[in-house]
Specification:
Strand content: 25-35%
Order of helices and strands: EEEHEEHEHHHHEHEHEEHHH
Number of strands: 10
Helix content: 25-40%
Mean pLDDT: 89
Strand order of the largest sheet: 6-7-8-3-9-10
Largest sheet: 6 strands, mixed
Low-confidence stretches: 246-256
Structural class: alpha/beta
Distance between the termini: 30 Å
Amino acid sequence: MLRLTNVQIMYDRSIEAVRDVSLNVEPGSIVALLGSNGAGKSTLLKAISNVLYPEEGEVINGTLAFEETDLKRIAADEIVRRGIVHVPEGRRLFPLMSVEENLSMGAFLKTQAQMKADLERVYTLFPRLKERRNAVAGYLSGGEQQMAAIGRALMAEPKLLMLDEPSLGLAPQIIDQIFETIIALNKEGRMSILLVEQNASLALDVADYGYIMENGRVVLDGPAKDIAGNDDVKEFYLGFGESGTRKNYREVKHYKRRKRWLS
């Protein structure tokens, strides 16, 4: 479905953000893309959506293909039409518009009848949004805003949904609701999902396959269960040392991790 091969991304033709990254998302799968801040995860999603240009970013080398179509050759709105929809970090709602107006913005390609049906599907997934349909989006709670952002993406009926840090800043109970919805979309709707997350434990629990990025490179990939069982991943991302006790991120020797993963 989605295949990235040896992708290199630069900002201002001088700052390398992503180097030689290859990544696949198979139909009907959930793929987790993990890594610390600045690893290049969000940049990769922006490249797939072809929205790097506002930040002077550019794909210098490599291929990005979706269902055999070269994504570098088509505009962002056409990428949405072809079935890739991106929920960016920070939700990016229109704060002065109502919840329903924000949702409707995701259905700009639809007829009124289609839009109405899609709204009902979103309200079925997120009953809280139906209760708040006339509320101004800027006054929603963080969890409600995340639901609205995902709901807006679903209005376009994506084949591939890309989620950038959906758990960021949310209470545990709300995170559980969001991830239950992600699982339902994948299992019941057969929607493919590319999930960028810093909560490695949660992401690997729902994913079929995982990639870990460091400094713009993929340093580890494999079935999610295998990655979750990797000693370095346990130590650095899941917070457990070799003895099974929790370890602080700062206590882990960076060179040791890099030596193991890149050897």
